[in-house]
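Protocol step 4 of 6: structure prediction from sequence.
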Amino acid sequence: MTLSRRKFFTLAGTGTAGAVLLSPLQAFYAKRTLAAGPYGALQTDPLGVLDLPAGFSYRRLSETGQTMTDGYRVPGGHDGMAAFPGANGNTILIRNHELTPTSSNGLNAPTGSKYNSSARGGCTKLVVNSSRNLVEHRGVLAGTIRNCAGGPTPSGSWLSCEETFETNNSKKHGYVFEVPSSANTFVTPVPLTAMGRFNHEAAAVDPNTGYIYMTEDQPNGLFYRFIPNNINNLSSGGTLYALRIIGSSGINTATGFPKNTPRAVDWVQIINPDPTSDTVRTAGYNSGAARFSGGEGIFYGSGYVYFTCKSGGSSGDGQIWRYSPTNNTVELYIEPNNSGVLDNPDNIVVFPNRDIFLCEDGDGTDFIVGITPTGSLYKFARNRLNSNEFAGVCFSPDGQTMFANIQTPGITFAIWGPW
């Protein structure tokens, strides 16, 4: 850690219900002496959990092991997440749990509600009121494996992605599952097989077309587009494609790719999206699709589909790409090649009309990193609790609250302040 990151001010005190607050004097002083990004320098949390800029507060909402509204325990492995509008000004969060069949803190569910009775991953639902207090949490998807990230749909559902390709208990895994934010009990799990069977990471929907873009968490993964037959009924099938850069068939984008240079693309069809062996990306590459190094978070915002590659760049510390649906181009947007600036980017969200925020999953200390509209990077939050990753960053519908997870031991936070 550099001296500028260590030289924090001590917080004035702690508010109610775990909310940590900074005094106006400290906020003023920090902005003058430790300015870093549009919100100022990070301040040391006396509780040793989250360092945030002056004037920002947090609350711990839902943690592994707590008893939920439905009587089951909060599972571990908090990962991707999205926020939806609820009744009476509430915010609904649908949260993934990246767990394997052998996870000790898995998601329990009633008999018959699981996709695979041996699997322990899935999704939970949280309801947070306008005062940023948790009023309800319950299980909504069960029996899946390594639900890593996903993405919200314009219809108010969550696409939960399995980051695996395996057969367990005679059930094939490696699919996308849809969970309505209105669900108040465990949904019937339906694998959306036409969206492909591979190591899914995350998904983003272009609201103008209903096309769904997806990342693949593999060193030689592809970038996918799914065109549904019916945008209001994803189980009705559709066609899966992979991105190809025109004039650079089969290129590996991990290194040597120029920044801020849009390249025209087209799309190659994946003929067999639901194979018995892990061949989707190989088939796409053999048709000329571009390889991306460790595809992670993805989000549609400001007319672009932004996505992260955790191990891209000459240093292997990560890249951020953006695809323009309007121009049908892709460009390398961010590649610092400096782990002190960006260390293995993961989940990502576009703050409406403002900055981009992403979660780090790197070595040592992880941060929530902000990116200004001009492409400047800054640290917004620091995990002081441990060396585990941030995940699931998203915003309430009114844009006043950021929600994020520390994956292990599994904590969901509400964060607010002078946005």
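Step 5 (inspection) to follow. The longest helix spans residues 24-33.
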